[in-house]
């Protein structure tokens, strides 16, 4: 099928931020008295909006995080990003090729705009994504697995949902894309392929350059 636009998730897809962010998050939660391993952080929070951390801590520990938890956690994550965030393998190559072939693409992430822009800057990808091609859950008031963010991106770009190809690395991202009526390929760099398939992924890719093959580029 010929797609009119490719929609990329950011964290864990275009930028290799998930190991850093979850190492910081799990460590901070443990420091606050809510023991959380790196594996548990991936399991419970990968691809979720920030409020989900509060929900999980309340459900699991009947605990309440500090009011400034997100701000302090972001400070720690941003500091860790500045020390070593890089683009995912093949990300720049894929974006350059899409530009050269005039195939539109954009980014749609549950993270806020500050997070997205900083990560793209540090990973050296900001020059490949104009501001009007960066979409955040902030824009619609709800994150994945709700389809709102993907539908907003498609509407803004003037593309029918069924003409969009989404690249996602989390089950929630896959669920959101499928709910929006889009084809979605699960990126298996960090996520169990079975979980992406169970969420409804159209197919799986192990490396970003495989996107070009899907598009016959």
From TrEMBL:
Its cofactor is: Mg(2+)
Swiss-Prot/TrEMBL keywords: Hydrolase, Magnesium, Metal-binding
Domain of life where this protein originates: Bacteria
One Pfam family of this chain: Hydrolase
- Spell out the molecular function terms from Gene Ontology: hydrolase activity
Q: Which InterPro entries match?
A: Beta-PGM-like, HAD-like_sf, HAD-SF_hydro_IA, HAD_sf, PGP-like_dom2
Gene3D superfamilies (alphabetical): HAD superfamily/HAD-like, Putative phosphatase, domain 2
UniProt similarity note: Belongs to the HAD-like hydrolase superfamily. CbbY/CbbZ/Gph/YieH family.
Name of protein: HAD family hydrolase
Question: What is the native source organism of this protein?
Answer: Kitasatospora nipponensis
């Amino acid at each position: 099928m010929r797609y009119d636009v490719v929609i990329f998730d950011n964290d864990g897809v275009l930028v290799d931020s998930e190991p850093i962010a979850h190492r910081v998050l799990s460590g901070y939660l443990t420091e606050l008295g809510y023991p959380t391993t790196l594996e548990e952080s991936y399991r419970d929070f990968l691809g979720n909006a920030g409020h989900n951390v509060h929900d999980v801590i309340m459900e699991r520990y009947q605990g309440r995080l500090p009011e400034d938890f997100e701000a302090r956690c972001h400070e720690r994550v941003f500091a860790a990003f500045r020390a070593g965030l890089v683009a995912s393998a093949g990300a720049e190559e894929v974006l350059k090729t899409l530009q050269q072939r005039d195939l539109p693409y954009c980014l749609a992430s549950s993270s806020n705009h500050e997070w997205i822009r900083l990560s793209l800057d540090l990973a050296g990808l900001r020059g490949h994504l104009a501001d009007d091609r960066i979409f955040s859950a902030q824009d619609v008031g709800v994150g994945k697995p709700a389809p709102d963010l993907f539908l907003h991106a498609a509407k803004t770009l003037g593309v029918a949902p069924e003409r969009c190809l989404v690249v996602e690395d989390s089950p929630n991202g896959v669920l959101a894309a499928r709910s929006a009526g889009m084809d979605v390929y699960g990126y298996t760099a960090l996520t169990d392929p079975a979980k992406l398939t169970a969420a409804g992924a159209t197919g799986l890719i192990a490396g970003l350059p495989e996107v070009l093959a899907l598009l016959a580029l």
